[in-house]
Amino acid sequence: MTTTDETMTSEEHLSEDPSLTSEGGQGLAPRDVTAAAERMRELGAVLRMAESEAAGQIADDSELEGAPLDETMIINMGPQHPSTHGVLRLMMELQGETVLRTKPIVGYLHTGMEWTGEELTYLQGCTNVTRMDYASPLFSELAFSLTVEKLLGVEIPERATWIRMLMTEMNRISSHLLFMATNGMDLGAVSMMLYGWREREETLRFLERVTGLRMNHNYIRPGGVAADLPDGWRDDVLRLIEMLPPRLDEYDTLLTGQPIWRERLQGVGVLTAEEAIALGATGPILRSTGYAWDLRRDMPYLAYDDVEFDVVVGTYGDCFDRYAIRLNEIRESISIVAQVLDKMPKGDYRVQDKKVTPPPRARIDESMEALIHHFKIFTEGFKVPEGEAYCAVESPRGELGCYIVSDGSAHPYRMHIRGPSFVNLQTLPHLMHGGLIADAVAVISSVDPIMGEVDR
Amino acid sequence: MSDAEAPAPEAEAPVEPELRHGAPVLGGPGEWVVYPAREELVAVVKALFEEGFLMCLDLTAVDYLVHPGRLLPPGVSPERFELVVTLISHGQRERIRLRVQVPADDPSVPSLFNLHPGTEAMEREVFDMFGLTFVGHPDLTRILMPEDWVGHPLRKDYDSGRIPVQFKGAPTAR
Fold first, then answer.
1. A146 and B CB contact within 8 Å
2. Global confidence as pTM
3. ipTM above 0.95, yes or no
4. A310 inside 8 A of chain B by CB
5. Dist. CA A180–CA A184, nearest whole Å
6. What is the Cα–Cα distance from A397 to A420, expressed in whole angstroms?
């Protein structure tokens, strides 16, 4: 089926070959009916070259063109597959066991969250974005809140900033622990899955104590955070940061030095820094190539310029580097959390602006104005001045950006989330090309996509 | 590190709007927003690429159908759609945003795929959600919606409340 007429006015684009650009072509088509540019894309060619060179390149690729069509096979992996992390579907062209072309097919979790974001008020917006990247929900809330605050022009209190740092670093720990668990599971180290989840549960328990929920917290909100840290939070954090480092050392013993583990990961799914930049890959994928880029250090937000930490980089850009980076980023996060413990200032946990945050519960009993503000904020929401803004944070998966256009009402006119997983997924064809089908699982796992964020 | 404010190397700026690579600019250091015309987009992105904006972070669109008024530099007339491209320069540690006006009667934009292959999925998403076509994109198909979906959900005139469930093989609307 083709699209309706009004959407396809660009005739010159369609006239090239309708069967390729109409909406029937989401899947991976056989090689002989795929245009050269798309074929190069699916092969994982990244760096740009002239059209004529590209044609030569394809002809030279004896692996591909040497394989007669009837010797290759297009197989489908997912969307229901234990190692596709949710509902990622891959179509791959194989020659024997070697992957030639890959095409990720996404959208199975698409629920129109950007559209929903336009329907909800700014106060409700966090409940929506927190469900995108469900392994690190606080980061989406943070990006959304920072953008709204930029549009509003409010400064949040210092304590709120530090609480946000504490909570997002805890969330980074839990997200990377989840990666450790699933990465182990995908590669057959099933005991690692249990250990990773055991530690992650401890971290989530802390998040639950503070926010009330294990996931989808809706804790970081425009104007600050939803509630102050509970009594005894210091002891909880201390217990956690004492418990975790020895456990991470156990992971090292279990995996890092182990020959089987290294054989499965080293040299698999290699990416160079140029390719990562061209593909827009961020986060551990970019850092694994040796390119030291971390928004927390390079474009600091919150109070990251007041804490000491190292940006962990790799050398080879392979799956092992990505594993090692995440493992060591947990250690860095633990050190950040320890510094936050020392530096946590006293004060308010949210801005005392009656137009932006609800008044304290006690005030509602004694002041009619407080009651009115409370009512207004929860029924109409607060109005945000006209304008547009983009803010980004370093999520465990890379740059998580939020772009909001406001028309001056209480709802965003347009709310867009730049999900790092969505962009990072584009590295898959490149990482897979020429590798074995068995390594595909290692590659998917090392990209660590969260499909809720890919499909939004 | 000479900061990025160097407004326009080739600024033949005759009048008020500041120019950067021949396109009007608003904003301030670290917050520049460039408003290139549709035809200039690829050239401006290329010039910025040579200036150090090596990575295309984000590409999205906005449908200004029911909110036409917005701040634009003089000489840029508002159109229904706006393509929003965010680039980042790691060397200068700054982002730059490009806003391109796209008319409703010809919603097509040149693709940035040849310069930034990482825009492939994002352009497909914009095509899927807004119906903007990208000239030169290798595989412009729907990415999030089912491939036989009709309409573009993030358009402001998309009738979101009353669309029957459309899936392959579904006999009729429920």
1. no
2. 0.86
3. no
4. no
5. 6
6. 6
